[in-house]
Write the structure tokens for this entry.
Amino acid sequence: MIGVLLDGLVQGLQLALLGVGITLVYGLGGVLNLAHGQLAVVAGVTTALLIGAGFGRIPSAFLGLLGAGLAGVIIDRTLLLPAYRRRGEERLLLALILTLGLSFGVDGFLAYRYPSVALTLRLPVGAVVLAGVRVRTVSLAVAGLALLAFALLALFLKRTLLGKAVRSIIQNETGASLCGIDVGRTRTLIVGMSGLLAGLAGLSQGLFSNLGPEMGPEFTVLALIVAVVGGVRSLSGTVIAGLLLGLVNAVASFYVGTYLTWILLLLAALLTLLVRPEGLLAYWT
Amino acid sequence: MTGRPGLGRVALVLGTGVILALLPGIFGTGIYSLRITTLMLVMIIYTVAFNIIFGHTKQLFLCLGALAGLSAYLSVILMRELKLVPAAAVAVGTLGAGALGALLSYVAARRGLGIIFVGIVTLVVSLIFQNLLLGLRRYTNGETGIVTQGLGFGLAGHTAAAYYVFLVLLVLALWVYQWLMAGRPGLAFGALSEDELTAELAGIDVTRYKVLAATVGSGLIGLAGALFADFNEFISPSIFSLAHVDIVVLIALLLGGMRTLLGPVIGAAAFTLIDELVRPFGQATVLAYGVLLIVLFLAFREGLVPFLRRLTRIPVP
């Protein structure tokens, strides 16, 4: 049982990595990126291709991450520009359709061009015993990477001037730009960062089991669920929602099976949207 | 407001029906071409319905596949398990789809969800539906799907007759559309899609008209879906997936032009043509759909019918 809970927490961290990207971009850009999961897949496929081309694992993973970040930057600078020219609901709708189109474009391209590329990263040591509990090294590695990423993100947002600028844009875009903050460039940075986070989630999937080109929609949906349950505006809410859903996922998969678990997660998102659109955990975060 | 469509509009609906009725004569009555044209009719019906829901009342329903699939699976399962007569089973399926659409629309309107959140809620609903299809293996056969041969009206055995059945359904759908738009609902739709608050202040029951649009649209989609299950002899989760229904209908509607009578017809017909052209590329069709959606939404948001209006200065309906 402790093993299941531990798995759940690590999966939760992975979910949180996915969700935080959506929340950041939604909060800052007023855009819901439906191609978010595809960025995770881009990182994974790039890494797999580089490893296949003979590069080492660590440089490949690094370049794969950069690839996802770069993809985010390119999306922000090209596809989303027409959306940024509008405000409020108009912008959301336009960006929603554009990123939906992009997600289909990426899925179709990967399925067409690289149907059988899959990323499987194996760690040299399988498991270690920590305080009497057998823990997979993968879980430790993924948890470590995710916590490091969150710590860096928190430091960036709370301690640096640029982070303050980001938070001020989240609060009020017009006000921030009146204070001399370059909204466009900050946004590009954040979309790039959300790409990096998605890429990290993709790579950790490669560590856990394997990541194929067809997993984009699944990642997007998971990210969306986590972000929605967390309240799409609050980062800490998203992280907590990720952990919670990860636990639910692990326990439910253990007892009732995968399909019911999926339905459970989706129902959680549905109920949150209908009952408390501001997020299930809005009081605590 | 008489609440009755003008004579010109009636002629137009019937004329569209007559032109489409001639298609089998033009493309031949081979099994393949009849199948493609019939699928086109189904797609047009979906698009006409989506035009009412999304075009006129701005409810972004991303669960069209789920609505059609709910009706299809419901009717097939009722016929198989309870030996219900086809007409009753199709009616129950249609009512089921209409009720789901009405429920979603009512809850969304009551909760004051914006257009995007309606989109997400309905997206989640279609994912739940897909997972239920996979999970309730005992009734749905999971991914394998159900062979519906021998159940229903046997539309598959009479391809030419099936074409005209769907054509009648399409003319009926256009008729309902025209009837809605010519009367009070049309006025209410126009007002509430411009500004909900103002419409509400002007005494329009926004929730009621939104639910009306969603119910009629979803019911139409359900009816077409149930008959499609009969025609196709086979249903599976992927036939009713987001990629195969919702995206296609969204593209068709954008291509043809929202809030027009002929837009859905022209858009879905044009899309069928494009789809036939890219079919040889296999998996790349999904890529083509994605690119098409982006390009259309960016560069050609008005759609073909409004474009023709501007070009020819004829008020194309």
In short: DSSP finds twelve helices and two strands in chain A.
